[in-house]
Amino acid sequence: MTFIGRSLLALALLVAASPATFAADIKAGDLVITQPWSRATPGGAKTGAGYLTVQNKGSAPDRLVAVSGEIAGHIEIHEMAVTNGVMTMRPLEKGLEIEPGKTVALAPGGYHLMLMELKSPLKQGDKLPVTLEFEKAGKVAVTLEVQPVGAKGPGGEGGSMMKHEHKM
């Protein structure tokens, strides 16, 4: 086998073993949910965050209105923003709209799921079942895969993640 052939084979095996390729897309009505993940937390931490991407392939908007899961006392949909150098985080009381034909990424530094009153620390490799509730698509079971502390995306430290549209 040539050097190029071996290189292509090694690359194919690396991509096939990537954690991001293990999770299948989750379809709910016109929505497609991908890359659900979280970060490990230090012992004693009472909060964590969850991230994912939602694409609306339909012609009408939908809205993420609630999230629940056994790992936390309650889970809120949050927005983080930096305005005039001041970081603010707030719950989205009316949920998060996913416009038709658009993709919304819940990612570090923007929209995210705030896991509050954690019942135990989140450990790398854990799988956290949560239920997303949409106005139109209804309830959808999703599993957040816990990545290392400080991970930037669903593949761990070097994972890639789509940026959401919110300017910071």
TrEMBL record:
Signal sequence extent: 1-23
Pfam families assigned to the protein according to its UniProt record, in alphabetical order: PCuAC
Keyword check for Signal: yes
Transmembrane stretches, start-end: none
Domain of life: Bacteria
Gene3D superfamilies: PCu(A)C copper chaperone
InterPro entries, sorted: LpqE-like, Lxx211020-like, PCuAC_sf
Alphabetic keyword roster: Signal
PANTHER family: BLR7088 PROTEIN, COPPER CHAPERONE PCU(A)C
Name of this chain's protein: Copper chaperone PCu(A)C
